[in-house]
Amino acid sequence: MPSLSPEQGSGLDADGAAEAAGAGGALPPALRVAYALCALGFLGGAASHVARGLAAAPDDPSSPARHALFVVIDVLAAAGMLWRPRWLVVPFALLFAHQLTTHGAQTASALRAGEAPLLVDALVSLFMPAVFGLLIHNALRGRTRPAPG
């Protein structure tokens, strides 16, 4: 196992998230804020699913069990935004695809009909691609090879 020189640091960035030595360095403050806002967004989604699961509105096509599942998914996604493991991009891609086929389809359908989409559908349709882009960026951080010499 290679040891780290003092110049390379501990392998941890300032907020304690594991970083490979020399693999992109510390996360810029703007990206820290972006990931924190994404975590808050997912916690908001979890809160929404708790409320909708408990309300059991007759016009809600989702069962309380489905809402409970998405509470868990949203809390795990929020934790992932703070922890940021590089592999998170893979399971998130599956969630992203699912959200595009549900909330994205509802948004597109409303817009095609000349109507305003539901706020939740519009927010998810805009939020998920941005989060996916951040996770792709995170997965690729430090993956470029240094110039020879």
Question: Please, could you describe this protein's structure?
Answer:
The protein is mainly alpha-helical. The protein is built from four helices and no strands. It has helices spanning 29-55, 64-83, 89-112, 119-140. The chain is globular, with a radius of gyration of 19 Å. Mean pLDDT is 83; it is low at 1-23.
Layout of helices and strands:
Elements: H1 29-55, H2 64-83, H3 89-112, H4 119-140
Helix pairs in contact: 1-2, 3-4
Q: How would you sum up this structure in a few lines?
A:
62% of the residues lie in helices and 0% in strands. By secondary structure, it is an all-alpha fold. The chain has two domains: 27-84; 86-141.
Query: What is the strand content?
Result: under 5%
Distance between the termini: 24 Å
Q: What's the number of helices? A: 4
Q: Which regions contain 5 or more consecutive residues with pLDDT less than 50?
A: 1-23
Q: Mean pLDDT, nearest integer?
A: 83
Percent range of helical residues? 55-70%
What structural category arises from helix and sheet content? Answer: mainly alpha
Give the overall silhouette: globular
- Total number of domains: 2
Q: Please compute the radius of gyration using only Cα atoms.
A: 19 Å
User: How many β-strand runs?
Assistant: 0
Main beta-sheet strand count, sense and barrel state = none
Order of helices and strands: HHHH
